[in-house]
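User: Some background: our group keeps a shared notebook of sequences we're curious about, and every so often someone picks one and asks for a predicted structure to add to the entry. Today it's my turn. The entry only has the sequence so far, pasted here. Could you supply the structure so I can complete it?
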Amino acid sequence: MFSSLYSWKRLSGVGSHLSGIIKRQLLPANVVQKAGYRRRRVPLYRAFSSSSSRATIAERNYGIRIGSAFAAFQSVAVSVGRRRLQLGGGDGVNVKGFTVSFSGSSSAKKTKIEEIMPEVVPYQRLPTSVLPKHYQLTLTPDFTTFTFKGEVSVEIQIVKETDKIVLNALDLAVQSANLKEAHTKHVPSKISVLPETETAEFAFSQPIPPGDYTLNIQFTGEVNDKMKGLYRSKYVNQEGEDRYAAVTQFESTDARRCFPCWDEPALKATFDISLIVPPKLEALSNMPVKTVGNVGDLVRYDFERTPIMSTYLVAAVVGEYDYVEDRSDDGVLVRVYTPRGKKEQGLFALQVATKVLPYYKEYFNIAYPLPKIDLIAIADFSAGAMENWGLVTYRETCLLVDPENTSAVRKQWIALVVGHELAHQWFGNLVTMEWWTHLWLNEGYASFVEFLCVNHLFPQYDIWTQFVNDIYIRALELDCLKNSHPIEVPVGHPSEIDEIFDDISYNKGASVIRMLHHYIGDEDFRKGMNLYLTKHQYKNTFTEDLWEALEEASKKPVGAVMSTWTKQMGFPVVKVTSKPSSDGKGAVLSFTQQKFCADGSQPTESYMWMIPISVSTSANPTKEVLNTVLQTKQMEVSVADVDPQGWIKINSGTIGFYRTQYPPEMLERLIPAIHDKSLPPLDRLGLLDDLFAMVQAGQSSTVEVLKLLQAYVDETDYTVWSSVSNILTKLGVLLSHTDCEEQFKKFEKSLLCKVSQRLGWEALKGEQHLDTLLRGLVLGRLAWLDDAKTVEEAKRRFEKHIGGGPHLPADLRSACYKAILRAGSKDTYDTMLKLYRSADLHEEKDRISRALGATKDEALLAKVLDFAMSQEVRSQDTVFVIMSVAMTRPGRILAWDFLKKQWQELIDRYQGGFLLTRLVKFTTENFASEEMAVEVENFFNNNKAPGAERTVQQGVETIRLNAAWLARDADSIRKYLESYNK
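Assistant: Of course. Here's the predicted structure to add to the notebook entry:
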């Protein structure tokens, strides 16, 4: 899945089994006082940790809240009845059948635990006494009542005598069921659908002996409006009439909303799927159509049998669609389905898909195993795309290209999304994770391979340089928080899964795989991938299975190296010093590693990574002169032939997932190489971002990064400017809490002056793809700064755009819209709404709606927030419109107050999921005071945030980091800007 998308550490050896054992317990005040800590409700995983286990328990995972005194204890055990999960010795206390044991330095050995929620419902995976082998599934959706009828016959194997069959079901009504064996029929004595466990239980009066059976179930359900399960997606047809499509979205655990099934990734089966639908509608599923026939006034489509696969990959779509088709060089039929009348908008994705399939076939040395693949644009879709085997579903904005109205950056995005989902056809679909704990294996890997593929197909994108800014840096920014989580997260209850569709699973996962790819080399990486996919095809795997295959191919200690990156939270900062070698011709580099923390604190535990270290020098900037692995706290290495006056760059190519901290003299020698651009783009980018991270952590002054930024005034590279822009944005948000915001805007404009003059507004003859992207970036930044020349030119061009023409190029519209909205009035706002309502392309609607928050008028910002929740904005887009308001100084508090007022409606609308987590993130993290940290904390203590608990904690942590940053550096920033702007 492509997330348009927090966490916990785990206790070694416990995994998901502790899930839900205790429901929200608190240590009483006397325990906390004896241990010398202030009583405070914090998640257990923040209070208790162990470097040896690399993990702690998350409140959401295990339903525990506990006082911070628990940090004093060195071990924990939890028991349920006779089942004891011991994590260390110590005394224990009983709480209504539970035992919580402590050991360590605390004098508080035994006490009562205050019970907050006494009910105990441990989460359990499905019993293994019954296994599915094959499903025959028939669905009949009703587009008038938005309900559906279903029948499923499941060929099962009972492996152990049982009087009860348990499988998953949610929001379904079971009409009847029976169990057949040859000529014998068993009718359940009781059928129970249990929403709290998301299961259906079929109880029988007599035990059923082992053997092969068929379980037949008739059921009904709702074609819902939640963008999960079998749901409805509204669109306007060519006649201007409202119509609905029926669409499935089953990842991660929503197949159970569509049909009773064993909805766990390891419980694979084959599927015969039939859809009974109104005439003149397209009916699609994973496999090609086998037969078509009439059933009264309806049409029945029977599809070919699928390969053995997981339930979350089953798919069906029913609606009005056109398509374009072609065959890949290796003979696979590829179709791209679009809204009717728009099939030309599918041509770019078709071109990409037909090239991607042969690329992956060659790279993995395994052919795509299905006879066809369909890519279809869905009007209402919560994620970016979903890799259903043979029928990949996409947001319209992630698939459709209108030559006149689609920007270059959007086309690039579509290429990446198509590459991502098609990578899953092998890595995820052919070979599937055993359980959601290994989600990162699916998503991190696909997020890496999509860049390999797009780099091959579109070398002009320079996509690996963009990877660092868009993927690698985002992961570093999140992973230095105390409320981050390891890449590999133990998952218990399905409600926890949405929490890990985040920048750690996707972006950090992709970044460490990129680091591994560089460490072992492309040839061995490909060999290892072939070994892995061949050995485990149509089966399920653990992370260690991948390491084993790559280790066999490369003969390097892949498992040992990678476990330090996937099993423990965070990443290191590598501190380097240099001194001349004894012969005077080289240098001796000393490296030290320690965990990097966003607040600059020293970790209280012992962390250690096996860190691939690469070094380049001014003698040959593009060549690595040293490759080694730092696997101890400290290490010295020698580098030959180093110019005494030249520079030395650590982590060349910005591939290693760590920060580098230089002493002032080493950093000073790198600055001329930024000016003359002899330092390669990835190194110019990485150097700046590392220093900025040190600034945020309080290990360097903000003034130092302001000085370094001036070295980039002649920068020409798009990705380097993207990183500069991100830093300017973060500083701008911070300084919007001060009285020197306008002074900082002057500073920004001076940095952007040369590059904006070079690019102008018009495309230059022979212009490269990246210059097109850079122009949009620079003008967008100047629009946000209310640059007078930019605003005037934007107004002039916008008047022509809405008048007789020419129309604005798609790449400049976002910048132009924001410029005129910031400078405009209610009339401007109303004009933008008219454009929104008349736009036919979803991408254009997105551009306009996400620009509306740029207005400075608080009354208009309030209208934008109301508009976001209106019927005019699809639920999938609402959060992004609210976020556009939250990103501005006048809109911050408005958006936060709005979220509080609308919280219950937002919960009802999204029922958790990563759209909600994203909204929480962007409406909280830009504040910068302890008062706001407390307010956010208190609100979410009193209002449930299902699936977003970790995001709340990250937001609160970020607010406090911002407040500390301001307290530390505000005065020196002000003095520097006053001096600079004289």
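Suggested note for the entry: Residues 426-569 form a domain with the Neutral Protease; domain 2 fold (CATH 1.10.390.10). The first strand starts at residue 25 and ends at 26.
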